[in-house]
Amino acid sequence: MPNPLTFDHAARLLTNAIAARLATFISGPPGIGKSTMVRCVASELGMELRDVRVSLLDAVDLRGLPFPDRERGTTLWLPPQFLPPMGSTNRGILFLDEINAAMPNVQAACYQLVLDRRIGEYELPEGWVVCAAGNRTTDRSVAYSLPSALRNRFLTIELRHDLAGWLSWATERVDGRPRVHASITDFVSYRPGMLLDMPEQLRDQPFPTPRSWEFASRLIEQAEREWGVFPPSEGSLVERELTQAMLEGTVGHVATEFMAFLDSVGDRTFVTRFLANPSSEELPTHGGCMFVLVMAIAERVKDDVDDARQAARVLMQRLPDMEWREKLRREVFMRCPMMMADPMLAVDELKQGTSSLEARNAERKGRAA
């Protein structure tokens, strides 16, 4: 298999393949965003998208319905409606999703369509390209190995999960709201391994993926509208039971840890208090709360909301742990590159620490000699 690519890099390669009119096969674990990427690329290029779930087809469905041509004494085939009409002047992507979950005889029916851009009497319009996607055979999903003859007809793109890319997409605001609820992006940032986790011992249970986190987000937003607050307080037993159930039904085994995280940072007023008085407000001791504080300030520095830049400078001086200081630097610089020149956020302290360590090591070596 080729080297796995991030979402953004895979999208760029797919765009180039479309320009070169090459058929493309996108492979990767379930729920990682394969279909989403194709939709995004089609939208950016202004192309029509025909989404065909190949796993639901029989081989005859691609060829179409036969009917007699009585004048010629032959059989013709009516192409299925899900294929773009012949002679169409639109530009588009024929997306054969879940292609390797289809039975081998259905995959074989795709050979001619992928390579020759036709099947029977049907011919794919000039402005259309074929793109396919499927899970890997190692992902505990229904998937067959693509026959070598079909695999050789594709440019293969292996897609991997990308924490930074997903967080950038998830936190982007659409109609004034982030795409994914802030409690989820906070948690996933705190526990990056939980963006995609498929433990073998829980193979029959739901598990967290970018897609299932998005489903959980929709349920959380609906609960928030209904209850007026999320997460529910420890005294709201029914609401907490419902919250646990909806999380277990979407992200599976991580639900309990996510609930504990919500409880530990449920009271986020410490962020407001710190921004109001960054020099003297007590810092949180819980790692999850500290993460939320760092991310909250980093999110505000670009527009300097609540005087966040000064708060970032003060927090940098007060953070006792070097790893948290580096985390704050990284997040602030990513959102506001101009602050890289700020002396209060400089890395001199780290350099001095390294120099001191090197001096101590040299002294020890000298004594040993």
CATH class of the largest domain: Alpha Beta
* β-sheet strand percentage: 5-15%
Strand order of the largest sheet: 2-5-8-1-9
What is the fold-level CATH name, i.e. the topology of the largest domain?
Answer: Rossmann fold
CATH architecture of the largest domain: 3-Layer(aba) Sandwich
Mean pLDDT: 85
Kindly, what is the distance between the CA atoms of the first and last residues, rounded to a whole number of angstroms? 52 Å
Radius of gyration: 27 Å
Q: Kindly report the name of the CATH homologous superfamily of the largest domain.
A: P-loop containing nucleotide triphosphate hydrolases
Poorly predicted regions are: 349-360, 365-369
Shape, per Cα inertia axes: elongated
Number of domains: 3
Counted by DSSP, the helix tally is: 15
> Sheet with the most strands?
5 strands, parallel
Helix content: 40-55%
Element string (H = helix, E = strand): HEHEHEEEHEEEHEHEEHHHHHHHHH
The class by helix and strand makeup works out as: alpha/beta
- The strand count comes to 11
Which descriptors would you attach to this protein?
48% helix; disordered C terminus; alpha/beta; 369 residues; five-stranded parallel sheet; two-stranded antiparallel ribbon; 15 helices; 3 domains; Rossmann fold
Description:
With 369 residues, the chain is an alpha/beta fold. It has three domains: 7-158, Rossmann fold, CATH 3.40.50.300; 163-264; 269-354. It is 48% helix and 12% strand. It has 15 helices and eleven strands. The protein has helices at residues 7-19, 34-45, 59-63, 104-115, 148-151, 163-171, 182-190, 210-227, 237-251, 255-264, 269-276, 287-301, 308-318, 322-335, 348-368; strands spanning 24-27, 48-53, 65-69, 74-78, 92-97, 118-119, 122-123, 128-134, 155-158, 173-174, 177-178. The strands form four sheets. Strands 2-5-8-1-9 form a five-stranded parallel sheet, covered by helices on one side. The longest helix is centred in the last third of the chain and has 21 residues, at 348-368. Mean pLDDT is 85; it is low at 349-360 and 365-369.
